Amino acid sequence: MSEIRYGIVGAGYFGRALGTAVNSLPGARVTSVFDPENGARLAEDLAPTNVESVEKLCAADDVDAVIVASPNWTHIDPVLLAAENGKDVFCEKPIALSYSDCARMVDSAREAGVHFMAGHVMNFMSGVRRSKKLIADGIIGDVIFCRAIRNGWEEPQKEVTWKKRRSLSGGHLYHHIHELDFVQSIMGPATRATMVGGNVAHSGPEFGDEDDMLVISLEFGNNTYAAIEYGSAFRWPEHYVLIQGTQGAIRIDLQQTGVTVRAGENSESFLLHRNQEEDDQRTEIYNSTSMDGAIMYGKPSLTPPLWLRGIVEEEMAYFHGLMQGNSPTEEFAALSDGSAATATIATADALSRSLTEDRKVDVREIVSEQEVAVRSFSPTSAAKH
Ligand SMILES: NC(=O)c1ccc[n+]([C@@H]2O[C@H](COP(=O)([O-])OP(=O)(O)OC[C@H]3O[C@@H](n4cnc5c(N)ncnc54)[C@H](O)[C@@H]3O)[C@@H](O)[C@H]2O)c1
């Protein structure tokens, strides 16, 4: 099987992590990097070419697939360019900051017949995968409610990064889209969305302009509901997802790391990550006083923790498998064509509108305003390598 060659757009904290994971896979090699600021440094470490423009990277003969890991607001251009050039794409979360951009990205990939995988890495946590399997097997009955909480307290920042600016990152809701995506992967797409909150405790030059308290309720149209909280205005940090079924419940603890299932008389617990070391390191980070795990932000000079590198390795191995001709698995099909990510952003947009207009918003409002509907597709490019 011929080697698959990857180009990376954005060589910061996560571009480096994705590139390192790619280079460790058999039959995979990073050949090019584009980053206006940090390209040279990553090129030196991963031994690819440091190209001067995103256009050049997407058109390069020695790039089969493009990995987009630039700041959130910049994702759309490289994705569209990659698709135009017939290149498969992996794009970091959130794939875009509006439903209309997501729909354009998904449509252009579908028209070009290339894969468009979203970097919703939570799906690759082993405890999350096992939980979803137990739910699909009916162990907890019908899921009727989910509660997801991801919050903490932000101290004054020496330097306010793009991750804290609403227009650049999307704020907590878009930047930490994982929990919303996870809830929808269990309960289906939300039909009605309500969000209250705002910036309640973090204004001034040492902070960004994102809202630091977001309180969400979701309806799914069949008497099932979810409640989600995000933010950095919470002195008592929490990070978990609780899934309530008619026969039992599952608690995924992302802070005291681990998963617990209760069904009838039975209770069982298992790891969230691949091994005890990864789980323990996560717990240690969350419990340290210097870093608030749930709202921790990377920067180009940092290396992600062991547990995060672990799920990135799993995620890149799956994407590389697609590049080698594997068909999307049922488990990850909606991740592999951008449809899950797009449905999540539709709900995020409905929530944003709910907050701005102080009303409950039907998610169809967001979707029907766009001429381009989200359609799932079967990539025809899988056999081309
Ligand atoms: N899945 C996860 O758990 C996870 C974790 C961290 C980051 N991310 C995502 O990865 C992406 C990158 O985040 P990060 O933490 O690496 O940020 P970062 O700030 O560390 O790095 C971003 C890099 O992009 C470069 N850049 C800026 N504008 C660019 C452009 N137009 N084209 C190419 N490069 C550009 C910057 O110079 C910088 O080197 C974001 O979308 C973020 O949400 C995902």
From TrEMBL:
<feature type="domain" description="Gfo/Idh/MocA-like oxidoreductase N-terminal">
    <location>
        <begin position="4"/>
        <end position="120"/>
    </location>
</feature>
<dbReference type="InterPro" id="IPR036291">
    <property type="entry name" value="NAD(P)-bd_dom_sf"/>
</dbReference>
<dbReference type="InterPro" id="IPR051450">
    <property type="entry name" value="Gfo/Idh/MocA_Oxidoreductases"/>
</dbReference>
<dbReference type="Pfam" id="PF01408">
    <property type="entry name" value="GFO_IDH_MocA"/>
</dbReference>
<dbReference type="Pfam" id="PF02894">
    <property type="entry name" value="GFO_IDH_MocA_C"/>
</dbReference>
<dbReference type="InterPro" id="IPR000683">
    <property type="entry name" value="Gfo/Idh/MocA-like_OxRdtase_N"/>
</dbReference>
<dbReference type="InterPro" id="IPR004104">
    <property type="entry name" value="Gfo/Idh/MocA-like_OxRdtase_C"/>
</dbReference>
<protein>
    <submittedName>
        <fullName>Gfo/Idh/MocA family oxidoreductase</fullName>
    </submittedName>
</protein>
<feature type="domain" description="Gfo/Idh/MocA-like oxidoreductase C-terminal">
    <location>
        <begin position="132"/>
        <end position="363"/>
    </location>
</feature>
<comment type="similarity">
    <text>Belongs to the Gfo/Idh/MocA family.</text>
</comment>
